[in-house]
Design a protein that fits this description.
single chain; mainly beta; 22-stranded antiparallel beta barrel; 4 helices; 55% strand; globular
Length: 647
């Protein structure tokens, strides 16, 4: 629940952000991690920002992960990839979730290709804001940012100590407990610590013996250290640990249609560390350093098959930035190594080493006109030398803002398409000679802001080539194995986003509409089909009343249109559906009591069709794709306690 409205902002970046205070009403929101350091309204690249205020509203709905925050953002769709385990990824403007780069303070702390469960394992408690860049962003972020970038920016400690505790429970027997503490330590040094415990019991809502809501138990902890001196040098250090045990599939004593039990489970242990540093070397030039490391171990259970694997990502980057008059620039070198090791199926092991060089130049051609160009050359050890450019233009006549942007990028294929995350590697044939996936995109963005009214319209388009997809190893149906191929032809996505917001005293009204027309070539190359699980029409309407230190009350209504379905034995198109939610919060001293009702109409996919297939798919899945909500109506409530510095 919340009235998140997306604000055009600066390009996401690499430098350590300053210690901000929450912007007051009417002030420009500044993206804290900018490459150029320009004001938000002066940046040619459009970035949409979900500020701390909106994050707090979503925390009251799902304190355990950031999926809800992103699912209500125009142009983004959180797609469930494994109904058995509840995993999900983020689709940007119709492109599949594996092409979206997920960063934390500009670092790939969740891996070069974040797993679908990674999104559900990130608590939003200590986030200051979330930044979204849509479209090919390989020019600055390399081969994992083909569809866009989502950067999670941490909260910065204030000048006095502060603490926050949140306790939450749901009507589906789920519980969350999170804590955040932060304090200055003197001499420019400050620190924060966040931790949480989250659990959910397994739920079989339609009593067919198959778990509709997986059970899990998760612990997280993340300390952060911040340092800044009077000369402007900054250092940011972060580390994180997470452990989770997740169960789904069939309940004890129940079976799938062939009469066998098919439990599914995933155990995850992840550790990461990251460093961001910046220091001025003259009045107009600074040096920046970034580095991180992540290791993630999994134990997967798919029926009677157990898979053990490990993902690792190492990253390092050094750059120089400067400005003179109306010109700002940045250039640097980067290196990233992504590895996968499977103890069970070592034939799928890979190690990608990708050194690269990049640069960006922004030029003010007049007070109202700015041109920006960026480019990156990656020397991929498997897919060769790749050039990724991006060009952007900003024009600001009066109350209007016009942005034009176009870019190109690439993606290094891995075995982990959505179906493999749901079914494992046991039925996948060894990968053949795959080509790198590429995309070219363009967008036109028109914004208007005057008084209490804000409006934004975006036209976007993207063409992808060599997209990978699973197909049966034997098209005649005589084999229960699949292989990964590059689709022939071009996968196309065209669409429009419309965002509106109006403020009247303590009431804020927000509306959004997204149209996406996406199609791809059939695997046999004989025709074209609509891109599965991509609704052509989605819309949302949010009303939020809020008074500082008193409380808030909100209503939201979301519409999701029909979606084309692939390999679904029950239907070829989904049903459209509407979700309605209500949320209320009241402040009592240093406590805030909240109650949130999601999906009041009780919309649930399994009310229309079974989730289980009558026959197991060739790739090993026992479930159809999730095209609608699986949880139905959920009520949650709790208390948030604050001590020390205020927001």
């Amino acid at each position: 629940m919340g009235a998140a409205f997306l604000v055009p902002a600066a390009a996401t970046a690499q430098q350590a952000p300053p210690n901000p205070s929450t912007p007051k009403e009417g002030e420009a929101i500044i993206v804290q991690a900018t490459r150029s350091g320009r004001r938000v309204q002066d940046e040619p690249v459009r970035v949409e920002v979900i500020a701390r205020e909106e994050i707090e509203e979503k925390i009251l709905m799902r304190p355990g992960n950031v999926a809800t925050i992103l699912s209500e953002t125009g142009g983004l769709r959180v797609q469930i990839t494994s109904p058995a385990l509840g995993s999900a990824n983020i689709r940007v403007q119709g492109m599949e979730g594996r092409y979206t780069q997920l960063l934390a303070d500009g670092l790939p702390l969740y891996g070069g290709q974040a797993s679908s469960l990674g999104l559900l394992q990130i608590p939003p408690t200590d986030l200051g804001q979330i930044e979204v860049i849509k479209g090919a962003a390989s020019a600055l972020y390399g081969p994992s940012a083909l569809a866009g970038v989502i950067n999670l920016v941490s909260r910065r400690p204030e000048d006095t100590p502060q603490a926050e505790v949140l306790l939450n429970a749901t009507s589906r027997n789920g519980q969350d407990a999170t804590a955040y503490v932060a304090a200055p330590l003197g001499e420019g040094l400050s620190a924060s610590m966040t931790g949480g415990y989250h659990r959910q019991s397994r739920q079989d809502l339609d009593d067919d013996g198959w778990v509709d809501m997986p059970g899990y138990e998760r612990w997280t902890v993340r300390p952060r250290l911040f340092w800044e001196n009077a000369a402007g040098a900054r250092v940011f250090l972060t580390a994180g640990a997470m452990t989770e045990r997740r169960q789904g599939g069939t309940l004890e004593g129940r079976t799938v249609p062939d009469g066998s039990a098919f439990p599914q489970a995933q155990d995850t242990d992840r550790f990461d560390i990251g460093l961001v540093a910046e220091a001025p070397i003259s009045d107009s030039m600074s040096v920046h350093l970034r580095s991180s490391g992540m290791t993630q171990n999994h134990r997967h259970l798919f029926g009677d098959v157990v898979e053990y694997d490990r993902h690792r990502t190492g990253f390092a980057e050094a750059s120089l930035s400067g400005n003179a008059g109306g010109t700002s620039w940045i250039g640097g070198v980067a290196y990233q190594r992504d590895t996968f090791r499977s103890r069970t199926f070592p034939v799928f092991d890979y190690a990608y080493d990708v050194p690269g060089i990049f640069g960006q130049l922004e030029q003010d051609l007049s007070p109202a006109l700015t041109l920006a160009g960026s480019a990156r050359v990656d020397f991929h050890d498997e897919f060769g030398t790749r050039f990724s450019p991006r060009l952007s233009l900003l024009y600001r006549p009066g109350f209007w803002t016009v942005r034009l942007s176009g870019g190109r990028g690439f993606y290094a294929p891995t075995p982990f398409v959505e179906e493999i995350e749901a079914a494992g590697l046991s039925r996948l044939a060894p990968l053949g000679d795959l080509a790198a996936e590429t995309a070219t995109n363009a967008s036109i963005d028109l914004g208007y802001r005057r008084g209490p009214l804000e409006a934004n319209v975006t036209l976007f388009g993207a063409d992808m080539r060599n997209t990978t997809e699973l197909v049966p190893l034997d098209p005649s149906g005589g084999s229960s194995r699949v292989r990964l191929i590059n689709l022939p032809g071009t996968t196309r996505s065209r669409g429009t986003e419309l965002l509106l917001r109006y403020r009247w005293q303590d009431l804020t009204l927000s509306g959004s509409y997204v149209y996406v027309d996406a199609d791809e070539t059939d695997p046999d190359g004989t025709g074209r089909r609509r891109l599965p699980l991509t609704p052509r029409h989605t819309a949302g309407l949010i009303a939020m009343w809020e008074q500082h230190d008193k409380g808030r009350l909100g209503l939201e209504v979301y519409y999701t249109g029909r979606q084309s379905l692939d390999d679904n034995p029950y239907r070829t198109r989904s049903r459209p559906y509407v979700e309605i939610g209500l949320m209320g919060e009241i402040a009592v001293a240093n406590a805030r009591l909240f109650l949130n009702a999601e999906n009041l109409l009780g919309v649930r996919q399994t009310k229309h069709d079974p989730l289980l297939r009558p026959v197991r798919a060739a790739d090993g899945r026992w479930t159809v794709d999730a095209w609608g909500p699986l949880e139905g109506f959920v009520l949650n409530g709790g208390v948030r306690l604050r001590f020390g510095a205020s927001e």
